[in-house]
Amino acid sequence: MMVVSSILTILFFPAEMVLSLLLESFEFTPSKKDIFWQMTNLASPTVVGEGTQPQLPIVVKLVKPIL
User: Is residue 44 within 8 Å of 56, Cβ to Cβ?
Assistant: First the structure.
């Protein structure tokens, strides 16, 4: 029954509402990697020592059951 109610929630509610319900179930914290912000036409985060590919590593932890 839980799966059916979750599917109905996704189908009948706007994406913003579903996202807000999901976000409160997680905790986001910065990783231990050093971040350097490249200030070009568009500021983008990169990990120090791992090239120039834009990336912003974060730690995501489930803090309560989803829906």
Answer: no
Domain-wise residue ranges, the chain: 2-62
Residue of 19, 32, 39, 34 lying closest to 59 (CA atoms): 32
How does strand 35-39 pair with strand 58-62?
A: unpaired
Q: Which amino acid is at 11?
A: L
* pLDDT at 51 (0 to 100): 87
Whole-Å CA distances, 13 to 4, 19, 25:
14, 10, 18
Asked if 55 contacts 65 with a C-beta cutoff of 8 angstroms, the reply is: no
* pTM of the entire predicted model: 0.56
Low-confidence ranges of the chain (pLDDT < 50): 1
| DSSP code of residue 32 | S
